[in-house]
Amino acid sequence: MAFGTGGRRRGKKSKVHFTKLCNFACCRSSLNDEHSQIGQSGFSRNVHCNDPDNLEQLQLRYRDNYVSTTKYTALNFIPKSLFEQFRRVANIYFLVVACVSFSPLAPFGATSILFPLLVVIGATMAKEGVEDWRRRKQDIEANNRKVQVYGRNQTFEETRWKNLRVGDLVKVYKDEYFPADLFLVSSSYEDGICYVETSNLDGETNLKVKHALDVTASIHDESSFQNFKAVIKCEDPNDDLYAFVGTLCHGRQYPLSVQQILLRDSKLQNTDYIYGVVIFTGHDTKVMQNTTDPPSKRSKIERKMDKIIYILFSTLIMMSSVGSVFFGIETKNDIHDGKLTRWYLGPGNATVFYDPRRASLAAFFHFLTDLMLYQYLIPISLYVSIEVVKVLQTIFINQDQDMYFEETDKPARARTSNLNEELGQVDTILSDKTGTLTCNSMEFVKCSIAGIAYGRGLTEVERALAKKKGGGPPEVGDTSFDAEGSNAELVDTGRSIKGFNFQDERIMNGQWVKQTHSNVIQKFFRVLALCHTAIPDVNQDTGEISYEAESPDEAAFVIAARELGFEFYERTQTSISLHELDRESGKSVDRSYKLLHVLEFSSARKRMSVIVRNPENQLLLLCKGADSVMYERLSKEAQSFKDATLTHVKMYAEAGLRTLIIAYRELSEEEFMSWEEEFLKAQTSVTADRDALVDAVADKIERDLILLGATAVEDKLQKGVPECIEKLANAGIRIWVLTGDKMETAINIGYACSLLRQGMKQIVITLDSPAVNDLENKGNKEAIAKASISSITKQIKEGLSELSSAKESSVSFALIIDGKSLAFALDENLENSFLELAMKCASVICCRSTPKQKALVTRLVKKGKNRTTLAIGDGANDVGMLQEADIGVGISGVEGMQAVMSSDFAIAQFRFLERLLLVHGHWCYRRISMMICYFFYKNITFGFTLFWFEAYASFSGKPAYNDWYMSLYNVFFTSLPVIALGVFDQDVSARFCLKYPLLYQEGVQNILFSWQHILGWMFNGFMCSMIIFFLATNCIKEQSFRKDGKVVDYEILGVLMYTSVVWTVNCQMALSINYFTWIQHFFIWGSITLWYLFLVIYGTISPILSTTAYRVLVETCAPSPFYWMASLLIVVSALLPYFSYKAIQIRFHPMFHEIIQRRRLEGLET
Question: What single string gives the DSSP state of each residue in 690-730?
């Protein structure tokens, strides 16, 4: 319950004794009567208050208050980080190759293998280390904060958080954070209340009231703590932020609830200080118990990449097998009829690796040699390059000004970089409604009083319905609810009031006193002004009153009452005071109502009541609640306008408004005294059925109510929601809304936000039928379940039949299903047919959905069709759905931060989802897809030149290139351009991504990372390798290379082929890039230049180290025109097949982005 500032002016300490106020919420929270379980498993913690050195407690060895959120420690960083790196199959392979490279089997030096492996592993470990060090610094700061603790010399002394122990008595001052989970002993307020902000725990910024037990609330003086000794027996550490079970043994036993618990990392507000006893420390605190790792999510592209790696491993093994077989045959044939055929190789004196007499063994060793030689098929830098690219992509997402919400100062946040490309493949969006599509900022817009409808404003839903019917919007002064048919002009208030958007001249500005039912209107707004738990906050400078309310609805009701003459201005422990417009005199008078009991709203009760005594000494029960529970509690003698009110409520729901019924009754002294005695008895009982007893007693007095009317508040759609949903639908994305609203409300909200569109046919599945209702009235659960399953099965079949009959037409369908039907549709026997029906519809609305159903529906869609799902929500009830979906997007809105903390991406408004998916999602998918394909292309191009050369050299195992050429290929000469591609490339601009949403289907259909596309790139690499090798070897075979007539030797052939490979793969990148920046130019042409610089520098080193590279460029290749002409010929020839294919494909079978590019070039798009 958010009591704000206790009804006092800011800066002044309130003397309100809220603990004297018996309210339903407090008794519910304290009596989950698991208290009977104290001492059993799960409830075994004993805390000796103000006695941390107690021998019994020391033997229990509770954790200290030191907190660590790091993944590593100084001791385990290297082994644990290495373990993380070698969980990847490719890294294990390279490690094995590096180890074997020290043996005679290696075709190259061990150093050239170890270097790139160390660079890749070291870079990743460094990244992990930096991230962990940042967490470490935050831990150090938190652990070294100061707090005052009661010491042995009977005074409070300053100590660090990390030194606190269970049982310590601490003093926390205003605006300080609680250092551990504390039991509230007392506070600066006489009655022991304090105000707490829990935004660090759940994101909710409204203040929550906590109150000490009466037995400890009076302990304030430091000297009095010397004699304070007690034992708390409570639950063991757990992650439930909203419940606590325990007892305080202090003379006798007192039950404890969450109302007496102050959680670590929440902040003390509007209270000078509190005293508390440490219950849970360090990692036992509830906030730390909640810091579990979110479910591990991997993108579909990443999972597919693993399969490609396996294919390349298979190719590597196949190539090695072919090489070893042919090597074995050639080696065996070295001795034929006792004669040496290749005598110049000296096979007679060969080692075991080349012994013709043991050809099979030699072939096996050669197989191992080839496994090392062809390792370049596996891109060693792929993983680290992708990680770097994804991190850079998230920076662009975080800094996108078009997704920054200035009103709340919240930018978009990518909370993980693993799923960037998944944003470009979303097939189905599952969305919450309240706070996600809407603002969760309620406005009082209409009401029905004494059977007469008031309020002339039009809601967004009403405008959408008017548009749907084909007519223009109705006149603003017109209302179908208006029983008196007034067509007067609207009253312009001249000012905007948050929470109040009501316009009706009949009751505004005091005109309600002239109405026929003015007495009912007076009682109606009195209920709104009195039946709540809000606290007024008076600004000392302006005198304006604002309200700290438990919910936006409640604030809207109090504001509406104020604007219509019933201003709530003060609350004490026993009274509520109003400035009222007197019906007789027409003047404002002050009236004070004695507050006796508050029976708070809960999801189970669906109503709230207060019992007050008015100045005329009448006892009144004032009640507001949902129509589903209120109508059955109305008095049969006082239903004169029940039907009219029911009609209005239905029409308000159709207009997308949230409704509550307002009622009251007078109580006699005898009835109240009898009820109160029974209520207090139930409240203080310690039996297991205590909840049920309190519910039953509260229900007894909330009977025979007199109907006053109904309220209607609007939760406005967020800005841009209809346009966003329409754009996403045009992109071919299915959109499901999972809401707790009534079906009528959900349908009309659907029209308002463009989820349901003109011409769209609706398939409605509901159990609201006479047959099922009759069975429910009889209460036969088995018969109800049987009839419900039968009805749902029939409706699903009819829906599928309707879809089949309309298959040839262009009509789109929407599926609407209520919560009861959904429970049966998710049954394992029906879920597949339900999913089939739903996936054939463009939009789906699930009404009256529970949080569990939201998660189950998400799981069904994700696993049933293996399509990418995105869930978006803003509240704690959406967490299951967000974690279940492939991508979870949290809205950082009014309902706190639980959804954001459980999400993969966070945005401030639903409309930003359009840019997140259609722009960043499309770009990231395209970039990552192209990047991976290109990686495999360049490695196949390089790896197969080694294979062709080995075949050319009788499968001798001799590499075509110098050791360091091969080692640096993936690290320096070809890696940077591909990173630039992954970060900067754009097929079309952001404006065209949004203008042509159908472009998004390239990702949904996975066109750029389909097996056809992947194998096409691999084939391109295979072709390039053949062209490079065979052109290089054939053009140099029969002619001199230098002026002195010398022909090409092994070293020059290696340089020529390597130069051709470097030029070819980098120029291939230039052909593939759509959007050039100076960075791409620098990396592409810089990589080629770097190759020549390396040759020059490396060639100057002693030939002992540089071996075949010694001065090979400066003295041999560079002076020869043939080298440059051959390189040009080979590169052009290698690129020609791709260039030709691409030209034909763009001309005759262009992809969608290529059509847009052509239109831009032709000037048809600007």
Answer: HHHHHHHHHHHHS-SBEEEEEEEEEEEEPTTHHHHHHHHHH
